[in-house]
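In this section we walk through a basic example: taking a raw amino acid sequence and producing a predicted 3D structure, encoded as discrete structure tokens. The instruction is simple. Fold the sequence below.
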Amino acid sequence: MLALTACTPDNAPAGAAAADQPLPELQVPASAAGGACILLDYPQIEEHIGVRFDVAASDQSGETATCVVQTEGSTRPDLTLVVVESTTADARTYLAELKPKGAKSLSGLGAAAYRQVLPAEDGAGPAVELGWLTKDKQLLSLRFTFGDGAGEQEANDMAGRLVNLAQALDSDEL
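The resulting token sequence is shown next.
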């Protein structure tokens, strides 16, 4: 005599329930993108600026490495890190020649630093940019660009949080 049984959740073979479960989402670390992304870590970015990113891309050209982090499926907000491996500039030269016109000098970050808030343009919201000369003669910049619709107050609030992230990068805390 042949007996047939149907596989239902109540009488499914052991292990079948586990096979039906969706796989957990795995997040590839930002550092896996290489380039300047090796300096960034999603949880610590979120800890310092309050924004969670989950995708990263990098590029390298000569002594300049870049990294852009975003949220999957959205182009904004984004955070861009640029690292120039070495420079002959000193603090005075950096502020006189490399600080953008209208940017404010910033203390407490590297040998010399600036910050600026840029207006919204081209379908993006305002941007906050920090640039600094590290004590070991590297040039770094961080730029956070908001999505369309963000205001100047949000950008000014982000500037302080971005300084915290920059200080962590400058001190190798990330």
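Looking at the output, two observations stand out. The chain is about 25% helix and 30% strand. The chain has one domain: 29-170. In the next section we compare this with other chains.
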